[in-house]
Inverse folding.
């Protein structure tokens, strides 16, 4: 028997119990299902049935149509009100993405030019681009949460545009006073470390000397051909003269390039206290070592660079890298709290993120720390002459030109 031949509630009940052999198929088209439901309700005069019989009809409709009881109940309510059952087609567009492909391209470009800094640093750069430098295209990215920024970095449009890179390592040796510097919130206490640019066929690469102020994170990178005294002393003099404030302390690890009489004499002549890392205190020079990874290695990588290019790289550092790092690259600054047991905890709040230059200006009595020939009016001209993104673009172009020159000359000589 065909389903359409069932005319009584008893036959419908037998169909549901399986005692009545009935040929039927589940309708595939939503429109056909709605029509069949309406036709069935009319055929059995549903509105005139008792409650028990209505239940039998509902179960039959559920079995044949595949709809849930709630959906059948809604269709019956529509039939009761209007006398017909019509499908209301609703096309849902889904969630409209807040961050467009253009925003993701801006984010990828921002990461490219700034060498993929941390999420909070990118957010800060977007805020500065929008608010400080008036670049309206960064308005949406300036309001993105840090967590969602990492989601955007994992998105398909982003990964099609970019891939990214890696990290750093330290070292030790003895002379100087073994203690941790205590700057007490004053700039001028440097942490210094050396980064070697690899060996190749027994030939040494260049060495980067990286000095970071503990309080402001003001950073100066210099590059030398060798770390012998005759090469290192002139570069140290240049490095100490680059900082805009007076230097009071110089802290290194136990590398012999710093722990020697020539360096000690230079620092003594400049009235700078010389300290070195303590044994079993691996964090004593952690600030400089972390900057090796987040700045030096990101810019120069790990590959071998022949030592004869040291002067050219040092010029790039002076003209492009150091101004970018100090005036246009935001950093986290820790807020330290000491509990009842004397343990110090550091928290890195987003609100405390700023560039090293902004940190220097924010210090109480900041003018008094500057060298006599400098003022913030002079330094502001350097800091705000170009935007963060323009500084990053200049860094990327200068770096590409530098590496292209190194590659070409290396191939000619090789």
């Amino acid at each position: 028997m065909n389903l359409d031949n069932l005319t009584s509630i008893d036959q419908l009940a037998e169909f549901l119990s399986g005692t009545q052999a009935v040929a039927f198929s589940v309708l595939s088209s939503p429109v056909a299902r709605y029509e069949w439901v309406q036709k069935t309700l009319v055929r059995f005069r549903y509105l005139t049935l008792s409650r028990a019989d209505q239940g039998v009809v509902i179960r039959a409709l559920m079995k044949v149509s595949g709809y849930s009881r709630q959906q059948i109940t809604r269709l019956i309510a529509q039939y009761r009100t209007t006398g017909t059952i019509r499908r209301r087609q609703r096309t849902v567009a889904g969630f409209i993405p807040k961050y467009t492909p253009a925003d993701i391209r801006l984010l990828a470009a921002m990461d490219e030019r700034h060498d993929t800094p941390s999420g909070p640093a990118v957010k800060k750069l977007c805020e500065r681009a929008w608010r400080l430098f008036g670049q309206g295209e960064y308005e949406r990215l300036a309001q993105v949460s840090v967590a969602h920024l990492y989601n955007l970095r994992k998105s398909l449009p982003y990964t099609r545009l970019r891939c990214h890179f890696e990290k750093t390592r330290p070292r030790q040796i003895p002379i100087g006073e073994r203690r941790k510097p205590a700057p007490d919130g004053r700039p001028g206490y440097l942490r210094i470390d050396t980064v070697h640019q690899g060996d190749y066929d027994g030939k040494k690469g260049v060495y980067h000397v990286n000095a970071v102020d503990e309080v402001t994170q003001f950073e100066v990178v210099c590059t030398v051909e060798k770390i012998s005294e005759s090469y290192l002393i002139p570069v140290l003099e240049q490095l100490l003269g680059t900082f805009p404030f007076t230097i009071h302390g110089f802290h290194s690890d136990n590398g012999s390039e710093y722990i020697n009489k020539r360096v000690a004499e230079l620092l003594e002549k400049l009235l700078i206290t010389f300290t070195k890392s303590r044994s079993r205190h691996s964090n004593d020079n952690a600030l400089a070592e972390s900057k090796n990874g987040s700045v030096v290695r990101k810019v120069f990588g790990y590959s071998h660079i022949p030592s004869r290019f040291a002067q050219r790289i040092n010029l790039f550092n002076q003209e492009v890298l150091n101004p970018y790092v100090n005036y246009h690259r935001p950093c986290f600054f820790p807020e330290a709290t000491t509990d009842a047991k004397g343990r110090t905890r550091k928290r890195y709040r987003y609100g405390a993120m700023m560039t090293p230059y902004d940190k220097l200006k924010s210090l109480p009595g900041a003018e008094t720390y500057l060298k006599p020939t400098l003022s913030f009016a002079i330094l502001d001209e350097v800091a705000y002459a170009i935007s963060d993104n323009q500084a990053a673009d200049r860094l990327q172009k200068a770096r590409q030109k530098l590496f292209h020159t190194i590659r070409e000359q290396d191939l000619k000589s090789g």
